[in-house]
Amino acid sequence: MQDVRTILQTERDRHLRELKELLAIPSVSASPEHKKDIEETAKWMANALKNIGMENVAIMPTEGHPVVYGDWLHAKGKPTVLIYGHYDVQPVDPLELWETPPFEADIRDGKIYARGATDDKGQVFMHLKAVETLMETHGELPVNVKFCIEGEEEIGSPHLDDFVDKKQQLLDADVLVISDNPMLEKGQPTVCYGLRGLAGLQIDVTGAKGDLHSGLYGGGVPNPLHALADVLASMHDDKGRVSVEGFYDDVVPLTTEEKEAYDALGHDDEAVRADLGVPALYGEEGYTFLERTWVRPTLEINGMHGGFQGEGIKTVLPSKASAKISCRLVPGQDPDHILQLLEQHIEKHSSDAVTVETTHFDKGKPFVTPFDHPAIQAAGAALSKAYGAETAYTRMGGSLPIAETFSDILDIPIVLMGFGLPTENFHAPNEHFHLENFDKGLEAICDYYSSLAEKLQ
């Protein structure tokens, strides 16, 4: 590793110049006017793969933005690592809140500021440079490598499922590595080995054919807001537990080893409460804050609408009311089954005096790689060595549908080895990436690929 560190230090300025070039391209996948920028970024990625010695490099079309692929498969008898990342970025609005132009990368205070710096151009770029460094050091790689870099992650990866399904043989690997997630906190290396799934639903309640005067009709005809409120209130008990029948039936419980690992993190619930400015934390009784947000399923009301929304009062009895609900799901739960249970619950608790309809939205299955899998433990060891601190093994409360896609279709373990920080404003103005994590992360990735050959034999 000393030779690797020497090259990383010697080439650091060049690496950062190249990263600035990549960050300068406004590859906003949500905006049709940036289609040419998306194409330019895909070409940049393809050229970068060729320059570091990857073979079979191709810009592969989808029904939307293309996927960039490249591989190096000459490590005979060694495992194959599939590296996933994305080259598209979020829109930059509101532009006036940026201290420096979002597509003119600026380094200050040990951080690089630009849209995509941490999500995800900066992190996927690290894997390019780690592979390049290993090639420069040894003339070959310790493992076989495949890159799959897409251009639609920020709009929900609508065409990735189909791409992965059609390219199963091409993408076949022994482990998938993703760096598109944050560390727990500064100086705390983190391996995430599981994510919650997602099931979203909208409830629309209709009463009379139009809004009515509450003085003339109130008390005599159904109020959709009241009917909706009754349904929503029925979904939890007074201890924070979801009341939908069968909701918890298939939940895979937390293992003793995992619980001990979470307890050892010494999470400060009171600090969270104070930071959020709430009188008290809330959630399912009998579980810690980390357990509630990482490994327990949830049902949340994300929005409600109905009636008069302006200032003052308008004595209207609305004809319609609606609510949006999302459930975060854990291993064992299937989003289609959960949505079916929700619809049964809504039907059971709805008033006969109104019409109730439901619409399904985002869905994604949860995934978890076994806590003691060699690929997970090897990542933790490499991170601990680079950071000089014990690695935290966590799950995340959010959802990353692409992880479930790879897990479900390719059936391979997934290692989420992120180097961003929760405070780095991804998706917001002044997005940035700490160069401390750029430097240490590069060392960790190089060490990980070097050690993985042994661990997965």
Please name the defining characteristics of this protein:
6-stranded mixed β-sheet, single chain, globular, 21% strand, 457 residues, 3 domains, 18 strands, Aminopeptidase, 4-stranded antiparallel β-sheet, Alpha-Beta Plaits, alpha+beta
Describe the SSE topology:
Layout: H1 2-10, H2 12-23, H3 35-51, E1 55-60, E2 67-72, E3 80-86, E4 106-108, E5 111-113, H4 121-138, E6 144-150, H5 160-166, H6 168-171, E7 175-178, E8 190-195, E9 197-206, E10 212-213, H7 214-217, H8 224-233, H9 256-263, H10 269-276, H11 289-294, E11 298-306, E12 316-317, E13 320-329, H12 335-349, E14 355-364, E15 367-368, H13 374-387, E16 392-396, H14 401-410, E17 414-416, E18 432-434, H15 435-455
Parallel strand pairs: 3-6, 3-7, 7-17, 8-16
Antiparallel strand pairs: 1-2, 2-6, 4-5, 5-18, 8-15, 9-13, 9-14, 10-12, 11-13
Helix pairs in contact: 1-4, 2-4, 4-15, 5-14, 13-15
Pfam families: M20_dimer (PF07687), Peptidase_M20 (PF01546)
Keywords: Hydrolase, Metal-binding, Protease
Domain Peptidase M20 dimerisation: 193-351
